[in-house]
Amino acid sequence: MRSLVETAPPPPCPAPFNLAAHVLAQAAVTPDRIALQLVRPDGAERWSFGRLEAAVRGVGAGLLARGLVPGDRVLMRLANSVEFPVLFLGAVAAGLVPVPTSAQLTAPEVAALAEGLAPALIVAGPGVAVPADPPCPVLDLEALRAMYDGPPCAWAMGSPERLGYIVFTSGTSGRPRAVLHAHRAVWARRMMWEGWYGLTPADRLMHAGALNWTYTLGTGLLDPWACGATALVPAPGVEPAQLPLLMRRFDVSIFAAAPGVYRQMLRSGAKLALPRLRHGLSAGEKLAEPVRAAWEAATGTAVHEAFGMSECSTFLSGAPGRPAPAGSSGHAQPGRRLALIGADGAPVPRGQPGVIAVHRSDPGLFLGYLGAEAETRARFAGDWFLTGDIGVMAEDGAIAYLGRDDDMMNAGGVRVSPLEVEAVLNAHPDIAESAVCEVTVKPGVTVIAAGYVAAAPLAEAALEAWAGARLARYKQPRLWRHLPALPRGANNKLLRRALRRGIEAGLGVTGAA
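RE: above sequence
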């Protein structure tokens, strides 16, 4: 049997359509229902669906009054604040194209993005970098907030296939790529409601990420609002150790976070009394099995993991109604068509590794990369979009994620998943977390190296014995480096290339790829 899963397609996206109108439709039904709570130990800031819709449509009208026209791009340079989703949806409501970016980017980095983007407006919060020589007007937060109470814009309805928003993703070359998404992308996210979240209108979903992270924007805000549920987000300054208290106080039923947040919440080793919590959600990077087990022991609830990417959001996951089998990332969400593609461009037999691929008919799949038609075409093999991630499909259709194609290590001609090695190292009682990569020790010679975080350096003989008892010889690290912390990006994602460069620099190796 081939590694191919074809589920029944989802209902077609309505037309005409507007992403923001769809997300905020609940405002016409129950305008006083709470849509958003920014929570902190001493209370919460509350936004009803009615207030949220009014602010969004006021911003849409205000942007048009400044001379912007549908299709213009709005570069978002905002910190972790409610203005982020209001501006995003306000731009979409008016037919403009919002472009969210990380607040941690430097001025030169933003200038490079803006050069290819050609924005008509930049909206920037205090202390957030903008280009030294902005290519367009820059609007501050005071002017943005002044639009909230203005007259509402009409919903800019149109084809669900038209461009709705742009996000940037890291390319394998290290150059950010602008990913173009259609309005229909938010309709496609409904496949996650059953296939990952188990989301209902009665839920109170807390996302522990910042409001200006696209994972929070989609999973933490847009999806609960479209479903009619309440979204909760910790206010700026809330520490992970405070989250259990807030979850209990505000009756959180679903909790979403990146794996790093789960690790930090579990540091005390104490039981977490969360009587209303039904389950947790994890995405962004692979959740280590020891962390999953510790969460289940501390809370009595499961964590359902999802796998996806900027070009299609998540499409593979475990769910309350269909938990992922042990060792796998789960099944294709209802409505998805997935395959594992081999070198010949066809699905590989089940049980053999292949590139995880999404069918081009998926309504959540991107429109392409901005100004990079050739690069867009190169990501497809026939009708399949190649994610660049390697997996293996079991007979029941569950897919085990083996790692990025460009993260996979080569040990004596045998491909080794870094996740497999890291799972063994992370189980060591003295290792807080670890990461492995393939490093060049001299021209033409590479080995597997491990960076680990521990209270003190560990004896290499003991580490080798631990790995030797649990891994085949070719999978065992040959180099060990004690680190104060693993290199991570703005969204807490592991930066393997930075780890490799650091280790190679310590070896005196230069010019390695």
